[in-house]
Amino acid sequence: MQGSTMQDVIAMFVSLVLGTLVGWERQVGRKPAGLRTHTLVCVGSTLFCLLTNHASRDFGGGNVDPTRIIHGVVTGVGFLGAGSILRQEGFVHGLTTAASVWMVAAIGVAVGVHAYGLAITGTILALVVLEGYRWIERWLSPSGEGAEE
Fold this sequence. Notes:
Layout: H1 3-28, H2 35-60, H3 67-82, E1 86-88, E2 91-93, H4 95-112, H5 116-140
């Protein structure tokens, strides 16, 4: 395997692990988008980013703007996340799930551009927010119940 191909394969597996970590947290909480959704969004985002290098090299030369693919990922995942938001009787549900899907897309993009430190930091911070902030919400809520999902 060439060095570039090996780096791409490593990036895909790093993305798989990081997306799985966030997806696991969502799955345990029985959220609408769980393990598989988060993992696939993360790995898919990484793949799109990795494809920019190949597309630029093989088809575009200097005429391909790799940031356009990242823009497409951000926009597309935004629509995916929007599908998980529900409004019932004046309450909105699914915002945290939508945000976590968007976050794993960003983690996947970071892995795709080989910014592993950012991707790992983003994963850790996402898990801190998803788990740790749950207790803060309960503490701040007058009724003792979480305000979100």
